[in-house]
């Protein structure tokens, strides 16, 4: 039975615990055994938290026996990206700059999850300081991609995705500043939820760009995403019952997002649109001209803030960094404060224009990523290839970050491709209901 548990959704594991069919201690030991036995475990987990996991599992088992479970995921193990502070355990954000950094308390979201009874399996590898969508990290580790052993897994929540895709956690918690939950989810055939900036607390989360940073789950189902969102913010999960695509209007964004699609993502997206249409969704195509202008602001806004946060730490020991990530941070050094302020003022205007243009649609739909996972060795040896693939990787996902939207990526059925649904700011519940109906249509 333990082998089957490793591939169940978090929600199904929770139901099994509630029905007395799954013991949280046995479940946790099954995952810890799998982590120890997996040949790529050291590339996925930066460190397992076995003592903490066992203690939390024993408490969950006692609650289950007494009929006092704390919620639907009480006793369910989770993995945590290595930028969420964990009391007494190193949190290094994939960087030698933060080696042996040990926080005194848990991040707010980890504390919320623990209070709801979940079990912390450990901390997963990530892109250095979260500043890459590729998942390539020669400094600490590059986790594997489930569909291609020679490819990167997507980042920056690379280990979070790998932990779920390889059966080493039922769900992982990551962060998303420009696509860091959705890219690794798509490339590893998972569901990934990027939340609205500011909705979930980033207290105790190592920052990249605080105005864009968000927290979200990487998991096996939309139901899991809904339950984990509620868990992270100490709220109530969206009601997914009766979700349907009948009568919904979906806008396929032709501006920028449909350009330069490789064969795999194009095939997956077209297949997904066909199934959504068959399930009752009305698919329309259209341009939102503001997208191109917002994309032109991305370099200024992201790199300026990232360098402003990290300049002192970076410049004290720049040789400790992967040179390509170092260069990306330093790209923000020359920006003028006046340009940064003007850029944000203009972005707010563009966000208002976007909201007006898409107000009549239930969601905007695009391919999650225009490319398949790039090859690790070629990324390390071919500068032109690295630049091209790196820029394309986060192009589509960044739209939601720039416009302040939640985004939900679903597997299309074509390996390592996703379809991305974007809803209005703060509209996660509606987006998750739509996602549940879309998930059923895509299976």
UniProtKB/TrEMBL annotation:
Q: Which residue intervals define the domain Amidase in the entry?
A: 27-432
Task: Identify the Pfam families for this entry.
Answer: Amidase
Q: Which Gene3D superfamilies match?
A: Amidase signature (AS) domain
**Protein name as annotated:** Amidase
């Amino acid at each position: 039975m333990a082998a089957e548990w490793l591939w169940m959704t978090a929600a199904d594991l929770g139901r099994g615990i509630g029905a007395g069919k799954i013991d949280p201690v046995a479940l946790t030991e099954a995952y810890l055994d799998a982590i120890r036995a997996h040949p790529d475990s050291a590339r996925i987990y930066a460190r397992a938290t076995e003592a903490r996991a066992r203690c939390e599992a024993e408490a969950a088992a006692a609650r289950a026996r007494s009929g006092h479970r704390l919620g639907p995921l009480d006793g369910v193990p989770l993995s945590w990206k290595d930028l969420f502070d964990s009391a007494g355990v190193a949190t290094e954000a994939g960087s030698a700059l933060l080696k042996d950094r040990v926080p005194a308390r848990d991040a707010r979201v980890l504390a919320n999850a623990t209070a709801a009874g979940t079990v912390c399996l450990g901390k997963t590898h990530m892109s250095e300081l979260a500043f890459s969508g590729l998942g390539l990290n020669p400094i600490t580790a590059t986790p594997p991609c489930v569909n291609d052993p020679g490819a990167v897994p997507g980042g920056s929540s690379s280990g979070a995705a790998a932990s779920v895709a390889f059966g080493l956690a039922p769900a992982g918690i990551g962060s998303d500043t420009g696509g860091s939950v959705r890219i690794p989810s798509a490339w590893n055939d998972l569901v990934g939820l990027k939340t609205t900036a500011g909705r979930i607390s980033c207290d105790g989360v190592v920052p990249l760009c605080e105005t864009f940073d968000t927290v979200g789950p990487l998991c096996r189902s939309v139901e899991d995403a809904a339950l984990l969102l509620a868990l992270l913010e100490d709220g109530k999960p969206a009601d997914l019952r009766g979700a349907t695509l009948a009568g919904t209007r979906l806008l396929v964004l032709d501006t920028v997002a449909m350009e330069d699609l490789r064969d795999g993502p194009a095939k997956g997206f077209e297949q997904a649109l066909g199934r959504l249409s068959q399930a009752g969704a009305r698919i329309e195509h259209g341009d939102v001209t503001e997208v191109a202008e917002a994309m032109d602001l991305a370099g200024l806004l992201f790199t300026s803030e990232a360098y402003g946060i990290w300049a002192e730490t970076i410049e004290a020991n720049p040789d400790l960094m992967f040179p390509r990530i170092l260069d990306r941070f330093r790209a923000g050094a020359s920006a003028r404060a006046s340009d940064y302020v003007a850029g944000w003022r203009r972005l707010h205007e563009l966000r208002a224009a976007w909201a007006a243009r898409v107000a009549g649609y239930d969601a905007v739909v695009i391919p999650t990523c225009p490319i398949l996972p790039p090859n690790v060795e070629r990324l390390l040896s071919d500068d032109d290839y690295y630049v091209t693939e790196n820029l394309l990787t986060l192009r589509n996902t960044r739209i939601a970050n720039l416009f302040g939207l939640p985004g939900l990526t679903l597997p299309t059925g074509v390996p390592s491709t996703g379809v991305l649904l974007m809803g209005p700011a703060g509209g996660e519940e509606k987006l998750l209901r739509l996602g549940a109906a879309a998930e059923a249509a895509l299976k």
